Amino acid sequence: MTAEREELREGLRLQAAERFARGEASALIAKALRVSVRSVQRWRRTWNEGGPRALRSQGPTSQPR
User: CA-to-CA distance for 43 and 47, rounded, in angstroms?
Assistant: First the structure.
């Protein structure tokens, strides 16, 4: 994933975190952010365990080939 794409995804996760804090439903968040409900559910679980900081990008998962 490119750095630009990674930054975009992190932004989506952080927007979702703001909505989690307001108590919005996963389906509404998914529709607003144009992502799958499954992704939002996964992000919410991560957010519940570690807060918004846990949704920040961890950097590339592997070295480019």
Answer: 6
Largest CA distance in the chain: 42
And the tokens for 37?
A: 């409900």
How far, in Å, are 27, 63, 64 from residue 17 at the CA level? 14, 28, 29
DSSP string, 21-57: HTT--HHHHHHHHTS-HHHHHHHHHHHHHH-GGGGS-
Q: Is pTM, for the whole model, over 0.90?
A: no
What distance in Å separates the CA atoms of residue 31 and residue 52, rounded to the nearest whole number? Answer: 20
How far, rounded to the nearest angstrom, does the alpha carbon of residue 61 sit from its chain's CA centroid?
16
pLDDT tens, position by position, 42-60: 999 999 999 888 888 877 6
